Amino acid sequence: MQATGQEQYIEFAIEKEQYAIRIQDIHEIIKIQDITAIPNVTPYVKGVINLRGKIVPVISLRKLFELPDKDHSRTTRIIVVHHREDTVGIIVDRVNKVATFSDIQLPPERVGGVDGNYFVGIGITVGGLVGILKLDEVLLREQE
Amino acid sequence: MLSEYKEIFLEELDEQLQLMDEVILQLEQEEETERVVQSLFRAAHTLKGSSAAMGYEDMKQLTHEMEHLLDQVRCHTLVVTVPLIDLLFKSLDCLKELKKDIVQSDETVTDISACVQELQTFAALSHAVQLNVPPASPAPDCANYPVLSVDTTMRTQEACDNGLGVYWISLRLSSECVIRGARLYVIHSHLGSYGEVLYSEPDMEILAEQEDVPLAVKFLYAGSQGLQELQEMIASLMDVAEVSVEPLRVDTDTMMVNQGAGVEERMVSEDQPAVKGSKSPTIRVSVERLDHLMNLVGELVIDHTRIHQVERTQRSRLTDESVNELGQISDHLSRIIGDLQESVMKARMLPIEQLFNRFPRMIRDLTRDLGKELELVIEGKDTELDRTLIEEIADPLIHLIRNAIDHGIEKPEQRLKAGKASKGTLQIRAAHEDNQVVIYVEDDGAGIDPARMRRSALEKGILASEEAELISDREAIELIFRPGFSTASIISDVSGRGVGMDIVRSHIEKLNGLIDIDTVQGQGTRFRIRLPLTLAIIIGLLVKLQEQTFIIPMSNIAEIVRIPYQEIQTVRGQSVILLRSQVIPIIWLHDHFNIPRSQQAKSHIQLVIVGSAEKRLALAVDALIGNQEIVIKTLGSYVGKVDGIAGYYSRRRESGFDPGGVGNYQSSWPEVVMMSSPMAMDQDFNQFILLFKRKTGIDLALYKENQMKRRLFSLKDRRGFSTFIDFYHALDKNAGLLDELLEHMTINVSEFYRNAQRWEVLEKRILPDILLRNRRLKCWSAACSTGEEPYSLVLLLSGHLDLKEISVLATDIDQSVIEKAKEGCYSADAVKEVPTPYLNKYFKKAHNGRYTIAGEIRSCVRFKRHNLLADTYEKNLDLIICRNVLIYFTDEAKEGLFEKFSQSLKKGGYLFIGGSEQIFQPQRYDLEPIDTFFYRKR
C-alpha cells in the first residue's frame, strides 16, 4: 500500500490493458499526426512529430510491452509528457478518462506479460486494474 | 544573491571590460587621449559602482585603484607611458579573472593584492614626481571652466533631466561700473528670477565681503530660455560690457566636474552614446525568446500553406467571389509572413565587430611576446551574421590569426633582409558575397613552402614517398589541413597547442562553411572562410530514399550526376565511379539509414557528389526532389544524436512553389529528416580513428562498426564534445578519459577473469576471509552484462566449495544481455584467462570455435533484471561485484549506490569494484579499503 491522496491520473488503454500516467507529468494529449521516422534509433522510438514548432520524439509502448504493431485508428492519441528535461510523446490506443485511485498496490514482478519494473503501482478501480506507469523506467533509453 | 541581478551585472561587466580593452589599446596608440581617458575612467567607475552594489569587494577595490590612477592621467598629472599601459592591461586581466570567479561561483579565488599594490605604488610614485616637476601643459578645459562640486553636478544633472538648458555665462562688467559687487549681485538675482544659477565664480557670498571685485564673472545657469534669448537678455542689463553664453558640454565639462568618486551613474550612462557614436536605442532580448518567435513564425508559414491549399481546393469547386477574396487574403498574408520572418532572422544577426574587437588586444600581446612588428587592418566590422555563428567562428579565427603571426609574419630583421617593410601587415576582413559571409585572414609574411610541406608530411608518415612526389604544389599546401600536421619545428606557446589547422577546418565545415588557402612563397598567405549567413536557415537538396525524404545541405554538394549502372566499378569490395578521371567511392545512403535499397528497376543511378577536392563521396539516392530553404531543428536530448542526422523538420521559407515540376509533395513535406553535412561527419570520425591508432595502437576500425560508432558517439556526446577531434585532444591530455573510453568500448566484450590479478586477490585474500565465517555464501554480480563475471565467480568458488553450495545472483538492466548470459556461449577470446583445468572441465568447444559453459555452472547463477538506481537490493550479502558500471553514473547517484551496496552487505562482507571507480571517503558508507578495488563492510 502506498499513500495515494487524491492524485489524478489520465487513464488510457493499449489493446485491452489499462494504464495510467500522473496528470502532472502530462503536457497535453493530441490526436495522432504524421510521424516522421528517424533512422538508426531504438525500435520503440517511432519517430518525431512537429508540435507547434517543437520537435517531439514519439515512442510506442507496444514494442516495450512486446505487443505487435497496430495501425492507428480514430481513437489513437499521443500523450505528450514532460520527463526531466525532455518532452516525449507516447502513442496510446485510446484515452479513457481522468481517474483517481483509492487503492494502489505495489506491482508484482510481472504484470501480465510485462516487466513489473515499468510500473509505480497497480491502481484498483471498479473497472479493473490499471497499471500506473513509472515514466523513469518506461522512457529510459537504451542504456549501454 | 539574486541571480537575476547577477546576470545583469555580468552583462554589464562584459560590456565594460570589452570597452576597456578597446580603449586601453587606443590609449597606447595615442588616439585622442583626452576622450579616451575619459571613457576608460568612466568604465572603471561604472564597474566600481556596480561591483560595490553587488558586494564583490575585490573588484571594487581593484577598480577603485584603477580609477584613482586614471584620474591622475585625466588631470594631466600623469603622462601615458608604456609601463602605465602595461599596468592597465594587467589590471584588466585581473578583472577578467575576477569575472571568471564570479561566473563560476560567488567566491573569488583570484588574488588581486599584487595588482592593487602595483597600482598604488604607481600612483604614489607618479605623485612624488609630480611634486618636483609641474605638469608640462595644464589642461585647457580645466583652465577655462571651473571645477564643480559634487552637489552642483547633481543639480546640473537634475536640470538637464528636467529638460532645461544649462549654459555657461561669462560676462565682463564695464570698467566704469562703480559698485561692482552690488551690480553682480543684482545680475545674479536677476538671473535667479528667470531660472536657476547653479554656480558662480567668484562665489556671490564671498564677493559681497570682498574689496577687490573682479570684472569677469562666470555663471552656470539653468533655464528654459534659448541661447540667443539668454544672451540678449543679459546684454541688455546695466553695466554689462561683454557677454558670452555657451551651452554646457556634457561629455567634457561634467566629467571635469568630478575629481572624487561622486559621479552619478545616470550621467555616466547618458554619456556613453555620445562617445560610441550615434546608435539607435537597443534592448537586450534573450536568444531563447528570439528562437521562440522564430518557431511561431514557422508555424504561421505552415498554417498559411494550409490556407493556400484550402483555397485551391475551394477554387476548383466553387466560382464564388469569396474564393477570390480568400486568395487575396492568402497572398497578402504570405507577404506579411515573409517580412515577419525576415525581421526575426535579422534580429538574430549581430555585426561581426563583436568578435573582431577581441583581436587587437590579443594581437598586441602576441606580437610583443614574439618580438614581431605588426600592423593590424580590420575591415568590414559591420558585416552582420547570426550570433551563434559569431560564437562558433571565434576559435577558428583566433587560431588562424595566431598561425599568421607565429608562422606567417617574419621577424623584423628577416623582413628587412627580404626587402619588405619591417612591420608586417595582418588584414582581417569580413564582407557579404552572394548570400554568404566571407572572412579573409591575410598576412604579408613568408607564405607556405610546398617543398617543406612535402618533407614534413613524409617525416610524419602522412604521405608515402611516391605520393609526396606525385602531388601538386597546391595539394602539398592543402596538407596543412590534414590531422596531425604542424610544421612548427618548435612547439610554441602560441600555435601548436595541440590544435591544428585540421580542427579549424572541421569546425568551419561543421558550420556548413568552407575554408581555402592561397599562398605565395615570400609574399604572404591568405585564408578565406565562407560561411552561410545563418545556421538557422540553409539551402538543402531534398532527396528520396524509398518513401522517406532527406535533405543534404547544398553547401556540401559539389555536383549531381546520373550515371548508368554498368559504369559502377568495384575496387576492393567498394563500389566506385570514375568521374573525370577521379575515383569516387559510392555510398548508398540506404545502408547508412537502414532503409532497404530500392530495386534496380531503372537503368541509371542518381548520385549526389559531396565533399571537396581531395575527398569526395558519391551518395546514391533514389530520386531528387528539389532545393528548398530549410530550418534545422535539433532532435533534442531524448533521442540524442543520430549518426548522420543533423536535425529534423524543414519548410519553405516563402510560400509559392518552384515551377520546376516539384509536384504535389506539398501536402507531405513539413516532415523531412535532415542529413547532416556528410563529409564533416565521416572525416571527423575517420581522423579520430587515425589519431587514436597512432596514440594507443588500438585500431578502432577493427571493431564492429555500428556498435563502436554508437558507443563512441554516445561517450563523446555525454562528455560534451562537439567533434571527435575535440574529443581526441581531450583524450590526449586526460588519461582518465582515455581509460573511460577503453572501458566503454569493451563493456560487452568483457571476458572471464577480467583483470586477472584482481581475481587472484579475490581468491587468495578475500575468499578465505569470507569462508572462514560462513560457507553458505550470498554473492551478487551487479550489472553482470553477458555473464562472464558471475560465471568467473562460480568457477573461482568451485575451487573451495561444492557446486551445490554455490549460488550467485546476477543482475543487469538490459534483458537482452541477460538472455545472452543465460545461453553461456563465448568466443575464444573471452575465455582466454580461464585456467586450463576449468576450461577443459566446464566448457564445450563448438565447431564454430565458440565455447559453451556447462549446465552445472550455469545452474549456480540466478539471473534477474534489476535497475541499480531504482530497484531494491537484496540483504545480507557476503560479496558484491559491481565493476565498470559506476563510471556511467553521476557522483550523486554513485553516492546513493555505495550507500545501498553497503546496506546490503553483511558485516564483514566485501564490495569488489572496477578500475576507475575508487570510493572517496569509504568510511562514510561504513566501508574500509582492504586491497585495491576491494572494500569491507565494518
Topology:
The complex is a heterodimer of chains A (144) and B (938).
Chain A: E1 8-14, E2 17-22, E3 26-31, E4 45-51, E5 54-60, H1 61-64, E6 77-83, E7 86-92, E8 94-100, E9 104-105, E10 110-111, E11 114-115, E12 119-125, E13 128-133, H2 135-138
Parallel strand pairs in A: 2-13, 5-7
Antiparallel strand pairs in A: 1-2, 1-8, 3-6, 4-5, 6-7, 9-12, 10-11, 12-13
Chain B: H1 3-28, H2 33-54, H3 57-74, H4 82-104, H5 113-132, H6 140-144, H7 150-161, E1 165-173, H8 180-194, E2 196-201, H9 204-209, E3 216-223, H10 227-235, E4 240-247, H11 250-257, H12 265-276, H13 287-317, H14 321-347, E5 349-351, H15 353-356, H16 359-370, E6 374-379, E7 384-386, H17 387-408, H18 412-417, E8 424-433, E9 436-443, H19 450-459, H20 465-470, H21 473-478, H22 501-510, E10 514-520, E11 524-532, E12 537-545, E13 548-553, E14 557-564, E15 569-571, E16 574-579, E17 582-588, H23 589-592, E18 604-612, E19 615-621, E20 623-631, E21 645-648, E22 673-675, H24 678-696, H25 705-718, H26 724-733, H27 735-745, H28 756-773, E23 779-782, H29 788-798, E24 808-812, H30 815-823, E25 825-826, H31 836-842, E26 843-845, E27 851-853, H32 855-858, E28 861-865, E29 877-882, H33 891-904, E30 905-913, E31 927-931, E32 934-937
Parallel strand pairs in B: 6-8, 13-22, 17-19, 23-24, 23-29, 24-28, 29-30
Antiparallel strand pairs in B: 1-3, 1-4, 2-3, 5-7, 8-9, 9-11, 10-11, 12-13, 12-20, 14-18, 15-16, 16-17, 18-19, 21-22, 25-27, 26-27, 30-32, 31-32
Helix pairs in contact in B: 1-2, 1-4, 2-3, 2-12, 3-4, 3-5, 4-5, 13-14, 16-17, 17-22, 24-26, 26-27
